Amino acid sequence: MTERGGRQDGNRQKQHEKREQEHRLDDSRERDTEGLGARLDKLSSALDSQRETGNSPDAAERRQDGVSPGSIGNAMTLAVRVLSEFVAAVIVGGGIGWGIDRAAGTTPVFLIVFVLMGAAAGFWNVYRIAMKPPDLEG
Amino acid sequence: MAEENPMDPIHQFVIKPIVGLHPFGIDASFTNASLFMMIVALSAAALMLLGTQPRALIPNRLQSLAEMAYQFVASTVHMAGGHDGMRFFPFVFTLFLFVLFCNLIGLVPYTFSVTSQITVTAALALLVIGIVVVYGLLHNGTRFLKLFVPSGVPIALMPLLVPIEIISFLSRPVSLSVRLFANMLAGHITLKVMGGFVVSLLGAGAFSVLAPLPFAMTIVLTAFELLVAVLQAYVFAILTCVYLNDAVHPGH
Question: Is A138 close to B90, i.e. CB distance below 8 A?
């Protein structure tokens, strides 16, 4: 019920914004950029107030997510994210080391050092995902 | 070889030129990938243009779809980037719709999924990171470099930690592009292989009684791929927000 109400409020707000947009249509381009900024500001504060009342449709959906079938999707996404962040860091580290070695002719030295640093960066990436507030995890 | 075997699971990713264009010796042909990118861009634009046309108080399906996408991305951007992050809302919204439509249209049989090409996803990821670097340097100047210097760490550890932070930053476009590309590629190959099993089993005499099994699997996988398509578009958008947030507020 609250979800429905929140959505309709949002729609009304948006319509209001759209009407404003129409009024601005024949203004110059500079004014249009200002208008965009103002609209984004308004949208932002509208979202702020919506979040405070906890009435936003997304908040409702997110609360359900803990038990709904969406949770398997979230878990899978998180797993893929952790894996790809880790692997990407090792690959980038290895690539940098390989490049330095190729340029300086010191073949395995920098490759080894930078693969290890890449692994460290990968762990650091994973740690950062784990430490992020639960709101933001994908 | 590849063109002769209809069951080759990689065959669907072959890029075929439709109109050959070779200006200055550069291969800039209009390919099937270009065609589907245009279809994606046009259908995303059509959703928003037609969806916002009626402006009814009680929205019809198209309008509520457009409004839900708008509100969803707006609240995501606002949650990740705060008030200052909202200036990137048009960019993130465009990116989200493009990736979402690429993924969804790619699921329709006989279409081409643009996001299964690493060149496309890498270009999108480099665009995001390019904006982070350029905007971060323009907006924050040298304070942007604080991104690479973790706070509250003894100076003696800096020579070790700064390269690690730099590698971690450079790995972002790699993981951003590879994740989307790998998910789409793997999903489409799995679907094709399962579909291939159905055909092979049907042609294998008595074993054809087993054909419904991979067929049921294909149906399940299609639903699963639908989930992956939406989730990956969402992840791409939310990580874009997180990275852009670093450009707006460096130093963590």
Answer: no
| Shortest CA gap B89–chain A (Å) | 8
B2: helix, coil or strand? coil
Which is nearest to B183 in space by CA: B142, B144, B232?
A: B232
Dihedral, A59, A65, A66, A72 alpha carbons, nearest 10: -150
Q: Are A71 and A65 in contact (CB under 8 A)?
A: yes
Nearest CB to A138; choose among B90, B182, B239? B239
- Parallel, antiparallel, or unpaired: how do β-strands B30-31 and B17-19 relate? antiparallel
pLDDT of B122: 93
Contact A93 B167 (CB under 8 A): yes
pLDDT of B132 higher than 70? yes
Q: Where are the alpha helices (DSSP H) in chain A?
A: 2-24, 29-53, 57-65, 70-104, 107-131
In the structure, what pLDDT confidence band is assigned to residue A13 with cuts at 50, 70 and 90?
Answer: low
Contacts of A73 in chain B (CB under 8 A): 227, 231
Q: Which of A21, A62, A136 to mutate to test the interface with B (most CBs of B within 10 A)?
A: A136
To the nearest whole Å, the CA of A88 is away from the closest chain B CA by: 5
Residue A3's pLDDT band, with cuts at 50, 70 and 90, is very low
| Global pTM value | 0.77
B164/A124 CB distance under 8 A: yes
From A65's Cα to the closest Cα of chain B, the distance in A is 13
- Interface confidence (ipTM) of the complex: 0.74
> DSSP characters for B149-194?
S-TT--GGGHHHHHHHHHHHHHHHHHHHHHHHHHHHHHHHHHHHHH
Distance CA A47, CA A50 (A): 5
Inter-chain contact B167–A118, Cβ cutoff 8 Å? Answer: yes
The tens digit of pLDDT for each residue in A40-82 reads 777 777 777 666 655 444 444 444 444 445 677 778 888 888 8
